[in-house]
Amino acid sequence: MTRLSGFLQRWVVFAGLVVVWELVTRAVDDTFLPPPSEIAASAHELWFSGPLSDLLLTDTVFDHVLPSVGRLLAGWGIAAVVGVSLGVAMGRSTAAMQFAGPVLTFLRSIPPPTLVPVFLLIFNIGTSMQLATIVFGVLWPILLNSVDGARSVDTTKFETSAVFRIPRAQWVLGVVLPAAAPKIFAGLRVSLSLSLVLMVVSELVGTDNGIGSQLLIAQREFDFPDMWAGIVLLGVLGYALNTVLLSFERRALAWQPKRAERTPATVED
Amino acid sequence: MTAMLEVTGLGHTYQAKDGAHTAIADLSFRVGAGELVCVVGPSGCGKSTLLRTISGLIRPSKGEITLHGDEVRGVPDDLAVVFQDYSRSLFPWLTVQGNVEFPLRRGLSRAQRRTRAAEALEWVGLSAAARKHPWQLSGGMQQRVAIARALAYRPALLLMDEPFASVDAQTRFELEDLLLKVRAEHDTTVLVVTHDIDESVYLGDRVLVLSGSPASVVADLRVDLPARRDQVTTRESETFVALRAEVARLLNVGKPAEDVADRRRVDEHRVDEHRADERRADEHRAARWAEAERAETERAGLVAAHERDDLFSR
Predict the structure, then answer these.
(1) What is the four-CA torsion angle of B214, B217, B219, B225, rounded to 10 degrees?
(2) What gap in Å lies between CA A15 and CA A19, rounded to an integer?
(3) Pair A177, A165: CB distance under 8 Å
(4) Which of B55, B85, B132 has the CB atom closest to A267's CB atom?
(5) pLDDT tens, position by position, B229-279
(6) Architecture label for domain B3-78+155-313
(7) Which helix (DSSP H) or strand (DSSP E) does residue B38 occupy?
(8) Where on the phi/psi map is residue B22: left (φ > 0), alpha (ψ -120 to 50), or beta?
(9) Example GO molecular function term (chain B) (predicted)?
């Protein structure tokens, strides 16, 4: 019952907004602004009218949506692995940040979309150029947060590990990484929403594959319900990815005192 | 009694940006096997520098430290430290049991680690809390986890850096008695660094009194109290009272360093001003040391890590 009311509470505003949108768009009756019901019908037609053997999914899903999501996840994943390992290593070395600090700040300041033409030249049109765009764009929040997190390990933990002669691998995996985890996750979350943006951007140039390109084609062909359906799909995708990451984060950082759902009773002797 | 720890002619000077600061001038003492020795000295006198040189975290500028006959170069294999700040020294992402087992992963099987952790937690009376996280426990209990972690490591020497300075008075008494109990049961050699005079006399078989900075040994007092001590009766015994007075005198507690007669001639206001200046200078010096020491510890730690890797690749 409480679960249900919580769910209702969370979605009632959203549902209300959709109803208002429906009413407004019907009243305005503008081809550029189709009502949500029309968008939903379009979305159904586009993606969910496939054969039963494919779980009702259409070819568009297999040809455009899934490859897009795949590139997003691959790009984000590569950035996560590179960013966390490089960031933790750099965070624990005083020299590395002194030398690399200005370079990092410079590279981070470049707006990633402006590099699309550069990556086009280097990688040609295709998956590798799209991946490069996503990786380059989302690497920085992960890298810098990892550096910050690795630096935040306090001297007492360092000395404790040194005194007990904790081997280096155990020190990195068992002390530095968990201590840096809250900051790393913050970076990962920022990057995930950023990779959705860059996925779309990378598909707007020189390709006819992916959600971004389909969106552009729909717009050029004045197929506004399809265009809006694409936008809604991106929103749903972003929401879903964030929810999955959050639940993973909650599990990984369950040890944090403030994350415990109920106030834990302090045990007194 | 065979010497477990032998410190000979130890001196340490920090190189800071604005010149050299001598934290320890010339220290020599021995700690016998199974002994509990307390080092007491005024704040900022180099006690923690002493502790860091013994634990191999920093290399002293001069002198020699040997642990059961082996010279200390880098962190010794069988030495454990209980730090003052349990909230930072324990790993919050591990359970109590995980914390105690953490240093044992080197060389012990899972089952062995489990047995040792369970054993050590029983010694400190925390068996029931094994699956809890440190932050779910009171401060006193957290420090007991740190003590259990040190004991499970089976150290030849247990170093304690102001171990009970961050808990309330009641808990402090309990932890002092707990330390005396486990140390009697397991014949551990312990060196406790403290600034609390009463604590040093209550805990110690011997009390080493250090001078203000740069540190040197002013007195090495034998504590002639029965091995079984009691927070009430021991503290009111004549021997205890006499000893604590002697330590206090040696530490010059409550007296300004300068000639008292000279002081009287200066008006009160100026005395206060002068004291404030002294205190500021002291604090400033302490802060500078702390900074230099941190830098040095990090460097030494990195070196130690390299040596450790060499050991493992062999």
Answers:
(1) 110
(2) 6
(3) no
(4) B132
(5) 888 888 888 888 888 888 888 887 655 444 434 434 444 455 455 556 666
(6) 3-Layer(aba) Sandwich (3.40)
(7) strand B36-40
(8) beta
(9) ATP binding
Tell me the two tokens of residue A73. 């996840």
Tell me which chain B residue has its CA closest to the CA of residue A254.
B93
Order across the sheet with B215-222: list the strands: B70-71, B62-67, B3-16, B19-32, B215-222, B206-210, B36-40, B190-194, B157-161, B79-82
Cβ atoms of residues B117 and B130 within 8 Å? yes
Residue range A151-193, pLDDT digits in tens: 889 889 999 999 999 998 999 999 999 999 999 999 999 999 9
Q: Residue by residue, what is the 3-state secondary structure of A97-156?
A: HHHHHHHHHHHHHCCHHHHHHHHHHHHCCCHHHHHHHHHHHHHHHHHHHHHHHHHCCCHH
Interface confidence (ipTM) of the complex: 0.77
Question: How much is the pTM?
Answer: 0.78
Cα–Cα distance between A15 and B247 in angstroms, integer? 76
Q: Are A64 and A207 in contact (CB under 8 A)?
A: no
Instruction: Quote the CA–CA distance of B200 and B37 in Å, as a whole number.
Output: 8
Domain spans, chain B: 3-78+155-313, 91-145
Amino acid at B145: V
Question: Is A269 within 8 Å of chain B by CB?
Answer: yes
Domains belonging to chain A, first-starting first, are 61-253 (1.10.3720.10)
CA–CA distance, B90 with B84 (Å, rounded to integer): 11
In the numeric block, the tokens 């990633």 are attached to A112
Residues of chain B found within 8 Å of residue A174, distances taken between Cβ atoms: 91, 102
Retrieve residue B97's tokens: 């049991």
The residue of A92, A159, A258, A262 whose CB has the most chain B CBs within 10 angstroms, and thus the best one to mutate to test that interface, is A159
B282 C-beta neighbours (distance < 10 Å), count: 15
Looking at the DSSP assignment, which residues form a beta bridge with residue B67?
Answer: B5, B70
> In chain A, where does DSSP find H-type helix?
2-28, 36-47, 59-60, 66-91, 94-109, 116-123, 127-151, 155-163, 168-171, 177-202, 211-220, 224-252
Chain A neighbors of B138, CB-CB under 8 A: 266-269
Asked, as a colleague might, if the bond just before B256 is cis with ω within 30 of 0, I would say no
Contact B12, B25 (CB under 8 A): no
